[in-house]
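Problem 12. The chain below contains 186 residues. Write out its predicted structure in token notation.
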Amino acid sequence: MKSRRPSESDLTNDYHRQLADRVAGECVIEALQNQLWWICELGGSLSCEQADQVHAPYTWSVRQVFEHCVDAERIFGDRILRIAAGDKTNLPPWDENAYADARFGLGNLGHMISEMGNLRQANILLLQRIKPSLWDQVGTVDSHPITPRGIAWIAAGHLHHHFEIIEKRCEVSPNRMPVKDAMGAS
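Solution.
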């Protein structure tokens, strides 16, 4: 199965494996789709005051964390596309602090949530159209071998990691997935 859990050859960086291990399930596309619900629910549960707070020991506001997740989602999609296409360039790491310092996200939090959802949907569509054999295509990021499958699991784990921190910082507990009724419908 192309969207199966990552193997050692999909993720060679220990931190990336830790991110992927945060995500439950066997299908990354399903995990990424389920997170679309969490994006909306978490974003909708935050007040403007909560979004602009910095909670020690962190140095970013919750709004900047959302912005970071948007930036990361965009970069993950680019890496998936490039590696699946056979691009053998050693892709550079990205300086998340430089992106945060640029302060793109000073605008409407709702717009960032929409952008995050749109980027996630675009990445899901990209993953769905990649031929199964290309999920195993090996590229490099910061000299670490990685596959599109590995990057997809990192994307899910990265969002999971940051959203758990936001929930804890803001003391909110939104539904992470649609609630099913007694008949199993959402």
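Discussion. The CA atoms of residues 57 and 169 lie 10 Å apart. Students who got a different answer should revisit the alignment rule from Section 12.3.
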